Amino acid sequence: MWSPIQQTPTCVVILFSIHFVLKAEKLLKANGISHDVIPVPREISSDCGMAVEFPCLAKERVLELLSSAGLRIAGLYSREGRDSFQAISPEELAAGVVN
Fold this sequence. Notes:
Blueprint: E1 10-15, H1 18-30, E2 36-39, E3 50-55, H2 59-68, E4 73-81, E5 84-87, H3 90-95
Antiparallel strand pairs: 1-3, 1-4, 2-3, 4-5
């Protein structure tokens, strides 16, 4: 979870079901990727649900793992502050624009 003294930017991935979130959590843990399962931030969606937060430095590996496990994502965001998120578009991902 984000803190004001945090050095590493984090990303939040939204998946299509809690089942997928739990599967992603198990997958990231098995691959030694630091992560937290968090409630979907209200700034992203008013729907109840869970998301996975992880260091943005690991986003390529995380997306690769999710894809290889057949877990499609509903959205990917970078955390810009405690309650601020920026959507990451597929084009930005492909171009490697996001930190």
